[in-house]
Amino acid sequence: MFGTAFPSSDLVSSSFGVATIATLTTALLALIGLSWVSERWRLPVALSGAALLASAFFYFEASQTWLATQQMTAGPRYVGWFVVQPLQVASVFFFARIAGPVPVGVFWRITVGAILMVLSRFLGDGGIFNPTLGVLLSMAFWLYILGEMYFGAMNDAVRKSSGPIRLGYFWIRLIMTIGWAILPILHFVDVVIGAGHQRGIIVLYTLADFVNLITVSMIVLAVAGKERF
Amino acid sequence: MFGTAFPSSDLVSSSFGVATIATLTTALLALIGLSWVSERWRLPVALSGAALLASAFFYFEASQTWLATQQMTAGPRYVGWFVVQPLQVASVFFFARIAGPVPVGVFWRITVGAILMVLSRFLGDGGIFNPTLGVLLSMAFWLYILGEMYFGAMNDAVRKSSGPIRLGYFWIRLIMTIGWAILPILHFVDVVIGAGHQRGIIVLYTLADFVNLITVSMIVLAVAGKERF
Amino acid sequence: MFGTAFPSSDLVSSSFGVATIATLTTALLALIGLSWVSERWRLPVALSGAALLASAFFYFEASQTWLATQQMTAGPRYVGWFVVQPLQVASVFFFARIAGPVPVGVFWRITVGAILMVLSRFLGDGGIFNPTLGVLLSMAFWLYILGEMYFGAMNDAVRKSSGPIRLGYFWIRLIMTIGWAILPILHFVDVVIGAGHQRGIIVLYTLADFVNLITVSMIVLAVAGKERF
Amino acid sequence: MFGTAFPSSDLVSSSFGVATIATLTTALLALIGLSWVSERWRLPVALSGAALLASAFFYFEASQTWLATQQMTAGPRYVGWFVVQPLQVASVFFFARIAGPVPVGVFWRITVGAILMVLSRFLGDGGIFNPTLGVLLSMAFWLYILGEMYFGAMNDAVRKSSGPIRLGYFWIRLIMTIGWAILPILHFVDVVIGAGHQRGIIVLYTLADFVNLITVSMIVLAVAGKERF
Amino acid sequence: MFGTAFPSSDLVSSSFGVATIATLTTALLALIGLSWVSERWRLPVALSGAALLASAFFYFEASQTWLATQQMTAGPRYVGWFVVQPLQVASVFFFARIAGPVPVGVFWRITVGAILMVLSRFLGDGGIFNPTLGVLLSMAFWLYILGEMYFGAMNDAVRKSSGPIRLGYFWIRLIMTIGWAILPILHFVDVVIGAGHQRGIIVLYTLADFVNLITVSMIVLAVAGKERF
Q1: What is the end-to-end Cα distance of chain D in Å, rounded?
Q2: Distance between start and end Cα atoms, chain B
Q3: Mapped to the 3 state alphabet, what secondary structure does C93-137 carry?
Q4: Within an 8 Å CB–CB cutoff, is residue D72 touching chain E?
Q5: Is residue B4 part of a domain?
């Protein structure tokens, strides 16, 4: 992970390092938890665990890259997001479906929405089309997903359900509202304003991932565990 | 995976990166799913999971190679195909056999057919014999496999079976018809026309693998899961 | 782990090497143990196992770094501590909760306390603010955690419980009192006095981790096992 | 596995690559199968799976070595054979013992025989003693093992048993007769005649391993599976 | 494992390579066996499996180091011994305790004895104190452990027990008497006489580990298996 000894003042290396070990450990706990949670909880837990592992994989590579070259670009981040964000959205869908029936169409809409959300930012960042358009499009898709979560069938299913599920859903949705908002904002500063992929922005991206990924997965796991312990 | 920080505009690195993480995560989900699906579903799920893992292994190595040398040849791809495509065909056989009795001879015919399909393309690409002949031969073997799937004993077994299996088989067969068609076409452009192993072709190959591998495995897993959830 | 052949007299390499293999092996035993301990013991065992694995990960990287560059800084250590110490504290909480009811608020207080304990030392070490302040703050958080362990709800729950749990809790608490005391002291010598990250200090840090991590995890595992064997 | 992009025409790299992924995937399937086969089948399946994994390990290293240095020697091959061939022979013993009682002495005789078979070739190849003598000795040990398989207690036990076991044993024995015959022949050409460790010989060695390892393990797994599916 | 292609005549590389693959495979078999052996056998099997894995880890690193630098020192070996030998002694303790009650004090005495046995050799080798003293001290601790095994509570417990356990204990003890005797002898030749860490000595060390580790673990596993198969 760190081929060279970096000082604590190197915040990027530190944040990448912590993100790697933290996502890896949380993924481990999620996978261990898989064998405990009751059957109906397996799918959301497995999906969020897979998202964590994919993210750990990214951060491991990212720290190596950073320490070797002292620079980081958005490219590898998108590689991670393309897998992680659809997985998380799918995890939320199956989380909600435990509370009550949710039409499978919702699954396709929000999963594809998440892929397009990443894709449009990606194309803007890669200069395939206008970055500003990329940001706006990705925000549109993000808002659509939020719409499904706040006013769609998932919300209806959860509203009628037991305390822990309702509480967990509330928090997950909140994190995806606030936490995911950071991404287009940072993207705007980075690409549109053209501040570039600076250290500060990298650390903020990492912190955002931290909240979005680890807390969400831990909430899923905790609610799933509530039924057993 | 990425020893250097690549920009989003480097589509090859991005596609390889996404393919690596995506196949790895899907393989993980398939292996996790193994412990859930009912016993008779284990074999097709295990085989498609193994195919995913073999492919993840290939893409991991491929991204490293690309980032180190900025070039990619067909060699490593064939290494992957030699294992992945027979595994997938075998997975389809055991998928169909769940629906009803299928003579084991079919298994040998389509598995060997898949190996020869890759081999003939390989020999053509490696210049052991005429590339055009390689393409034509591989297409012949591919069409034979399709013939078994459309008109053979597998189709008969599936036609009589329950909804999900029939639907899953329909989609898998469709993907193997359209998705696998891309391979000889790209091979023709690459080797016969002699466009060479360009970035565009590499990305298209990767996208083809994406559809052929991940969706097929997810369909197998989903149909298998239907029986439990 | 060791890319070069080092003599036994190279105490840093030796200590890093032993720490890597020892934490890795203990983590393995903890994860194996998971499938044996009775259900209520799973959570503390899983958490201490995860802490061991995260630490093994750190030491593996640390030995590589050391042998490649013959130098080590505090940076990577904090990367490990940020994950390991909160995990251990959480493990103690769930350990105590087996003995009797402990309000979940305690969990949040000591876990956040552990994160802040590491963070304040980290910020001091990184020069974000005054090192001495960092030491003092981290000691304050550490003492708060000890306070919870000695006089808080966890202690009450454990006091009423069976022999092994009470004994185990006593030892874990003792180790966290003495063993964790080494960290701020070494930090003080290293950063505040400015002795720098010398070989002697590195070895002492490693020995401290050794006691704090491996013995604590083994105690958790042993007490959990007592119920079965 | 492949640090550089090799063309399909590089048959050594291709064969090493395919061997790596194929043995790895087959080992995975064998280990997955372990949790399905009935208890009495576990030992032979586990042993052949272990043999596959050891071989995958060898081929992974071999491809790396080849691509880095464009040369391969017999040294690493023997490293693999020392572990793989005794494991396979042991696997056959426990395979036969399922059919009926086989004195444990047979186990010791054929396992030690397999070790000596590799050792004598190894010593000849390493120039510790006369290569021709090495070939002759190894063939003697190999013929002894075949003798046990054709006329020994294993054959008696199997002859009385059910169809699948008898059929499987027949094929395994046949492969060990023909497939293993390639090794001393290649060794003779390589060392005694002194053709050296050329590309052609390397590929033939790999193909031999392919047949000897993967097919044998798959037969063991298939026969074991017959009892369940 | 082998970054370069070495000839069979390079006995060190060959022995390191074989040791790596052999310990790794045996560890795999031990871990697989864990899920078969009856509950009371789990602990000794797990401990010897962990010892094998720790040793495989060492040998993997050792071969890499050797092939990269063509030299090996005692340093890394001690790293392995510090973990492996206490684990093995602990494994023997729990092996004996299955036969009958053994006071837990014996566990602490022989485990600490094993650590001190390695430590004293280590300090002598590292020049922290007189090598001859190191050898003598380590032999004293080793003889103490043997004393516990021959005349202590473990022997009493085993003597009254069933055939396989008594036989297994007899062999394990014998191996620890003869096999472990090689270590101080080699150490004496290496350090005290000052022959240095030559190729011959390295190979002998590896062979000693081979006998001490793999056979002992296999005996534990075999005796444990006797109860099931």
Answers
A1: 36
A2: 36
A3: HHHHHHHCCCCHHHHHHHHHHHHHHHHHHHHHHCCCCCHHHHHHH
A4: yes
A5: no
Q: In the structure encoding, which two tokens stand for residue B80, read together? A: 């992957």
Name residue D129's amino acid: F
The residue of chain E with its CA nearest to that of D72 is: E5
Residue C194 buriedness (CB in 10 A; 0-12 / 13-18 / 19+) = exposed
pTM above 0.90, yes or no: no
Structural domain contains residue C87: yes
- Interface membership of D50 toward E (CB under 8 Å): yes
Q: Give chain D's largest Cα–Cα span.
A: 53
**Closest partner CB to D57 (pick from E8, E21, E33):** E21
What is the maximal distance between C-alpha atoms in chain E? 53
N-to-C CA span, chain A: 36
Farthest CA pair distance, chain C: 53
Dist CA E146 CA A88 (whole Å): 57
* Distance from C-alpha of D131 to C-alpha of D137, rounded to nearest angstrom: 10
Cα–Cα distance list, B223 to A88, A107, E10, E146 (Å):
22, 16, 54, 60
Candidates E5, E11, E67; CA nearest to D127 is E11
- From B126, B108, B13, B128, select the one nearest B59 (Cα to Cα): B13
Rg of chain B, C-alpha, whole Å = 18
Q: How far is D107 from chain B (nearest CA, A)?
A: 32
* pLDDT attached to residue B107: 92
- On whether any CB of chain E is under 8 Å from the CB of C214, the answer is no
Share of chain B above pLDDT 70, in %: 96
Residues in CB range of D15: below 8 A, 6 or more apart: D202, D203, D206, D207
Q: What are the Cα distances from residue A3, in Å, to A66, C69, D214, E14, E115?
A: 10, 9, 38, 29, 31
Hey, which chains touch C, using 3+ CB pairs under 8 Å? A, E
Mean pLDDT per segment of 10 residues, for chain A of length 229 residues?
70 88 92 86 91 91 82 82 92 90 90 93 84 88 93 88 86 89 80 74 86 89 78
CA distances C81 to A14, C43, C86, E73, Å, are: 11, 20, 8, 32
Whole-number pLDDT of residue A45: 92
Mean pLDDT (chain E) is 86
Instruction: Locate the chain D residue with the closest alpha carbon to E229.
Output: D40
- A83 closest CB neighbour out of B5, B10, B18: B18
CATH number where B103 lies: 1.20.1070.10
Nearest-CB residue to E25 (from D64, D78, D83): D83
Distance from CA of C33 to the nearest CA of A (A): 12
Residue in D6, D29, D228 nearest the CB of B50: D29
Q: What is this model's ipTM?
A: 0.87
Q: Based on the structure, what is the number of domains in chain D?
A: 1
CA distance D150 to D92: 12
- Tell me which chains share at least 3 CB pairs under 8 Å with chain E: C, D
How far is it, in rounded angstroms, from Cα C48 to Cα C32? 13
Residue in chain D nearest B54 by alpha carbon: D21
What's the CA gap between C110 and A215, in Å, rounded? Answer: 17
Question: From A41, which residue of chain B is nearest by alpha-carbon distance?
Answer: B229
Is residue D3 one of the residues assigned to a domain? Answer: no
Could A3 and C80 be called an inter-chain contact, meaning their C-beta atoms sit closer than 8 Å?
Answer: no
E74 touches chain C (CB under 8 A): yes
Q: Is B16 exposed, middle or buried (0-12, 13-18, 19+ CB in 10 A)?
A: buried
Identify the residue whose tokens are 């169909």.
B96
What lies within 8 Å, CB to CB, of E171 at 6+ separation is: E215, E219
Give CA–CA dist C86/A161, Å, rounded: 32
User: What range defines the domain where residue D206 resides?
Assistant: 11-228
Residue D199 at interface with chain E, using a CB cutoff of 8 Å: no
Tell me if B1 is assigned to some domain. Answer: no
